[in-house]
Design goal:
Elements: H1 2-32, H2 35-40, H3 60-67, H4 93-111, E1 126-131, H5 138-148, E2 153-156, H6 158-163, H7 165-173, E3 177-180, H8 193-211, E4 217-218, H9 227-235, E5 239-241, E6 245-246, H10 249-252, H11 255-265, E7 271-275, H12 279-294, E8 299-300, H13 302-305, E9 313-314
Parallel strand pairs: 1-2, 1-7, 1-8, 2-3, 4-5, 5-9, 6-7
Bound molecules: nickel (II) ion (NI).
The site of nickel (II) ion has 5 residues, from loops.
């Protein structure tokens, strides 16, 4: 009897011991296999085990582990340094890299709110700009631009906008940019504040009366500039736009010179300065345009080339 009870006790202890061992084993398995180890085992094989550097400078391993970390508990916030949206696990590493690049672009855009260079919207394109008009040759120029489907930007004088409202209307309707070049070509850094203000305001008023749109860009006549000019432009909702390539067409007044200059100097991402008030410029440009198009250049308005806000100056070296 006594022997039977001892056997029962031993059997009970054995069962408890087995149950305890099982419990400990399960607990160990749960602790060691976090959710990430299971997922990393299922990573895409495209990197061939190599470490790939993402545009944000993170290695692919860092990137993946940051993105694929376990969901945080309610008491512990996410520790990931990558502020990227969490993609689903089925996404390829290429998609992950794209997401990271998009996020760094967003960060770049945000940081530009306080400082930094303007964002190029079409870095491979060229912006053609024509100053001082509109005038008697502008219609012919608009015809050629229309024929080739090319957009340009006109920095117009207020006095001529009033004289040729039909040309201003046409520029607007045909998709060209229209900027403010003062009312009567005054050198804005050489004038008093009241003149500066009225030269710009009268011109913007004239353009708005004709097109219904107030200009967002201005170009100081003669390139005469200082802080007061940029501040006044900013107060009137405009950025100041200069140029990268000066054809000096007004000086030489030679259509062959304009043609040669354009073929030799046109470059991607640049703003080119010309004047549609000279017949030689219009003639030389109209001959050069199909050749430049054959060379593969694409043309956009200044607005389409670069993102600018009131008070900003572009290109930056003009500061
Ligand atoms: Ni001018």
């Amino acid at each position: 009897m006594k022997k039977k009870r001892r056997s029962q006790r031993i059997a009970l202890l054995l069962v408890i011991a087995i149950l305890l061992s099982l419990f400990v084993a399960i607990a160990m398995v749960m602790t060691m296999s976090g959710c990430s180890s299971r997922e990393i085992a299922g990573l895409p094989e495209d990197s061939g085990g190599k470490t790939v550097t993402s545009p944000a400078g993170m290695t692919r391993e860092t990137e993946v582990s940051a993105i694929r970390s376990c969901p945080p508990s309610s008491s512990s916030p996410p520790t990931s340094t990558l502020n990227a949206p969490k993609p689903t696990l089925s996404k390829t590493s290429k998609t992950l890299r794209t997401t990271t690049a998009a996020t760094s672009r967003q960060t770049e855009s945000r940081s530009r709110a306080s400082y930094g260079p303007p964002v190029m919207k079409a870095p491979g394109a060229v912006a053609l700009t024509f100053d001082d008009g509109p005038g008697q040759y502008t219609g012919e120029l608009l015809d050629a631009l229309k024929e080739y489907g090319v957009k340009a930007t006109f920095f117009v004088q207020g006095q001529f906008a009033e004289q040729y409202p039909g040309l201003i209307r046409r520029m607007h309707q045909e998709g060209h940019g229209i900027g403010n070049h003062t009312y009567s070509h005054r050198f804005l850094s050489e004038t008093d504040e009241a003149t500066r203000r009225s030269q710009l305001a009268r011109t913007s008023d004239a353009i708005e009366r004709i097109t219904g749109v107030r200009p967002r860009l201005m170009r100081p006549p003669g390139g005469y500039r200082n802080g007061a000019v940029f501040r006044e432009a900013g107060r009137q909702g405009m950025a100041a736009v200069f140029w990268d390539i000066d054809t000096a067409d007004w000086k030489y007044k030679d259509s062959q010179y304009v043609y040669n200059y354009l073929l030799n100097h046109t470059a991607a991402g640049k703003i080119i300065l010309m004047h549609d008030t000279h017949k030689t410029t219009v003639d030389g440009f109209i001959r050069a345009l199909p050749v430049l198009l054959d060379h593969g250049f694409t043309f956009v308005t200044v607005d389409e080339l670069v993102e600018l806000r009131p008070g900003e100056v572009y290109p930056l070296r003009w500061r």
